[in-house]
């Protein structure tokens, strides 16, 4: 029932962000970072793209690692400048739509994996929602990121959380395309990834891993930048802002124009809502309705899939 309620919300295009407590500054991009050789994927030499450049998957992982190591400390400030704070509303709504901690029977334990979740902005929201909204402290969230710099920011921020929240958290440096053995098959109730999957070098591999580790009935949920093609005027304004203003803001605020130029290009290269939904289905998931919910005209979208029973 919880899984179906989470999926059903994807067919409702109303946008009613929760009033979720938000002490923790948020970020809108996550990382991939292959620091260790065991994180090399079987398709490391296959061609992919880094923004508009063609590179191997291995090279993309290295270069994305550099981007996020560069911007980790300035990420919160940059996200507020880039989105005028709207990313916070998107994330609140994303978590509210998943309703973590709402179990039958009430209080049943839930296990969750927040992938590319380094700084903890989604995981901390899910903890608050489960503890306060649903009165369920019996959850455990593993925050996974391939970039240790992003994880370090999340670990530091977690120290400001109540002790009861901290005991529900663990951190894991891992590649989402080849999750480590401690993430067992059929072991998770919820897998989330927020503003990170477009940076993966092999998205289908990551989706297959999500399918593997979720329990039957478990939910895959992704919040990611998307396409505004159905609104030509908004699309034109959005693209002009993205390609003109965001790299300039990156230069002025973070002294790093190149990293933010990549982030803009990575958004442009990410599949459309329909194409990404089809990728989720190809990985084995079932979807309800359109399989996605547009936010702010499609600037961002929530995708959900359920692992069949």
From TrEMBL:
Pfam families: Ubie_methyltran. Its EC number is 2.1.1.201. Keywords: Membrane, Methyltransferase, Mitochondrion, Mitochondrion inner membrane, S-adenosyl-L-methionine, Transferase, Ubiquinone, Ubiquinone biosynthesis. Its main location: mitochondrion. It is an enzyme of class 2 (transferase). S-adenosyl-L-methionine binds at residues 119, 145, 175-176, 194. The gene is COQ5. This is 2-methoxy-6-polyprenyl-1,4-benzoquinol methylase, mitochondrial. It catalyses: a 2-methoxy-6-(all-trans-polyprenyl)benzene-1,4-diol + S-adenosyl-L-methionine = a 5-methoxy-2-methyl-3-(all-trans-polyprenyl)benzene-1,4-diol + S-adenosyl-L-homocysteine + H(+). It is a peripheral membrane protein. Pathway: Cofactor biosynthesis; ubiquinone biosynthesis. Belongs to the methyltransferase superfamily. LaeA methyltransferase family. Belongs to the class I-like SAM-binding methyltransferase superfamily. MenG/UbiE family. One of its GO terms (cellular component) is extrinsic component of mitochondrial inner membrane. Component of a multi-subunit COQ enzyme complex, composed of at least COQ3, COQ4, COQ5, COQ6, COQ7 and COQ9. GO terms for molecular function: 2-methoxy-6-polyprenyl-1,4-benzoquinol methyltransferase activity. It comes from Metarhizium rileyi (strain RCEF 4871). HAMAP family: MenG_UbiE_methyltr.
């Amino acid at each position: 029932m919880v899984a179906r309620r989470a999926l059903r919300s994807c067919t409702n295009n109303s946008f009613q962000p929760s009033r979720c407590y938000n002490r923790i500054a948020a970020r809108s991009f996550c990382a991939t970072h292959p620091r260790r050789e065991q994180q090399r994927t079987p398709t490391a030499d296959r061609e992919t793209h880094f923004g508009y450049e063609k590179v191997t998957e291995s090279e993309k992982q290295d270069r994305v690692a550099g981007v996020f190591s560069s911007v980790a400390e300035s990420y919160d400030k940059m996200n507020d400048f880039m989105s005028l704070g709207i990313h916070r509303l998107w994330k609140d709504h994303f978590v509210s739509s998943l309703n973590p901690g709402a179990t039958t029977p009430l209080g049943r334990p839930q296990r969750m994996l927040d992938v590319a979740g380094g700084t903890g902005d989604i995981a901390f929201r899910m903890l608050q929602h489960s503890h306060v909204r649903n009165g369920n402290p019996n959850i455990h969230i593993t925050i996974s990121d391939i970039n240790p710099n992003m994880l370090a920011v999340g670990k530091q921020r977690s120290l400001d959380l109540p002790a009861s929240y901290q005991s529900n958290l663990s951190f894991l440096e891992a590649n989402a395309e080849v999750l480590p053995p401690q993430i067992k098959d059929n072991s998770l109730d919820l897998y989330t990834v927020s503003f990170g999957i477009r940076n993966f070098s092999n998205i289908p591999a990551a989706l297959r891993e999500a399918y593997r580790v979720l329990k039957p009935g478990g939910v895959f949920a992704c919040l990611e930048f998307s396409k505004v093609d159905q609104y030509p005027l908004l699309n034109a304004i959005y693209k002009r802002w993205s390609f003109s203003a965001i790299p300039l803001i990156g230069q002025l605020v973070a002294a790093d124009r190149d990293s933010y130029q990549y982030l803009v290009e990575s958004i442009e290269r990410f599949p459309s809502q329909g194409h990404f939904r089809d990728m989720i289905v190809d990985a084995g998931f079932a979807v309800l309705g359109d399989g996605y919910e547009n936010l702010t005209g499609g600037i961002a979208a929530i995708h959900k899939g359920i692992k069949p029973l």
